[in-house]
Sequence to fold (158 residues):
Amino acid sequence: MRHLWLVAFSIGLALTSQAHAAPSTPSAYALTGSCLSFTLAGRPLKRGCTGNLLNLNNERGGTAFTFTFADGAIVSFEGVGAQQVNPTPNTAAQPINAVFFSLGISGIAPHRIKAVGVCRYANPGLGPMTVDCSAQTEDGAFTGRFQTDGRAPTEMRQ
Fold:
């Protein structure tokens, strides 16, 4: 879990430079369950996608859903929390404006690309739910689908 906190902190810093919304309280939550599918730049990549999904929110209004991989790689779907819409009281659609990814390999810099997409999800406090993210980039489509196990999200603290 310590590794996940470091990942969350790194992405939170990255989001800080991107968001342009009103200040809010930073938070990081871990969701547990199963990675159902993942596509990286149009290529299927479910293998190694872990049963941990992070939801990060920074003090400048940035938000992200971060998929984690067994080899240390991460892929985040990033947006501005104030742009979120709620089709129903217990569902949300978060517009995505960037995809951030890091292979977790020393000497290979993380990369952020502009994107147009959305992450859709339901209230995780009401039982199992699915986080479904998709974004189009100049490098191709990024998609991630994660099914929670119904446990409440765990707030991550340093």
